[in-house]
Amino acid sequence: MTTPQSCPALQLDNQLCFALYSTSLLMTKAYKPMLQSIGLTYPQYLAMLVLWERDGITVGEISTRLLTDPGSLTPLLKRLEGEGLLKRIRSSVDERVVELYLTEQGRALQQQAEHFPTCIVEASGHNTSELMALKEEVIALRSKLQQALHSA
Length: 152
Prior knowledge:
It comes from Aquipseudomonas campi. InterPro entries: HTH_MarR-typ (IPR000835), MarR/SlyA-like (IPR039422), Transc_reg_Sar_Rot_HTH (IPR055166), WH-like_DNA-bd_sf (IPR036388), WH_DNA-bd_sf (IPR036390). This protein is mainly alpha-helical. The chain has a single domain, classed as Orthogonal Bundle (Arc Repressor Mutant, subunit A), CATH 1.10.10. Helix content is 64%, strand content 7%. The protein has seven helices and two strands. A two-stranded antiparallel sheet has the order 1-2. It is globular and about 65 Å long.
């Protein structure tokens, strides 16, 4: 049995998508023990990051920030509410809109998470400015892909 001739453009190690995907998986694994120490999953942490920036936002706004569907975000937000970290309140202006407010417990969790970014910088073996430059490149790539998807 012979193996088919491999096209370099289709080799796994030549794929930017795989480099980003596998790095994302490892980033999530690096966060896991820290997040377990405060009782959050990685998606919950991302939602809390948005709320720590701006309390009182709507489900639609947090969904937009996280580039996810509001329907898939709702169970996660209900779990955070069940854990006493936030309150979901229907808007008095439009009952279809749900606003999210941190509880005291949710605000206090921010202090416990403040050292997480430093731990990730240390684990990466890079300095902060190198990682910020990489982040900007990834964000630029994301923006180009969003534009391409919207114009298609």
